[in-house]
Design a protein that fits this description.
With 123 residues, the chain is α+β, with helices and mostly antiparallel strands. The protein is built from three helices and six strands; from the N terminus they run βαββαβββα. It is globular, with a radius of gyration of 15 Å.
């Protein structure tokens, strides 16, 4: 039998104190996307480094990984290029290939855009 992963976010993992800065980071990263590439197991996003710094992306990853533990995050820079790549990989599937939800599992629920912005990245 294969390994199964919960494809849902733990919406309670990001504390109330961190939500305001988390939402600012989400918006900053969304606005910085200049290219999006679908990978066999995830997505890669080219981000404008003037709109969202590497530090912004690293801070977002530190929070997002709490609520989306099924994802692997990677930041890649090339030489002195200000732009960089943010890659999300793991058990990510195209919408058409995702199984129907079987309901919440403890604190896990489908991504809530108010609490998790990985949904806008992979959705």
């Amino acid at each position: 039998m294969g390994t199964y992963h919960v494809l849902a976010c733990n919406i309670g993992a990001i504390g109330e104190a961190d939500l305001p800065s988390y939402k600012i980071l989400c918006t900053r990263l969304q606005n910085a996307i200049t290219d999006r590439r679908e990978l066999p197991d995830g997505f890669a996003f080219r981000l404008n480094g003037e709109s969202a710094s590497l530090l912004d992306a690293a801070q977002w990853i530190s929070l997002e990984r709490l609520c989306c533990p099924f994802l692997t995050f990677q930041l890649q820079t090339v030489g002195s290029d200000r732009d960089y790549w943010l890659t999300l990989q793991g058990v990510v599937r195209k919408k058409s290939e995702r199984p129907a939800s079987s309901g919440p599992v403890r604190n896990f629920r489908p991504c809530d855009p108010e609490r998790s912005c990985a949904s806008w990245l992979i959705g």
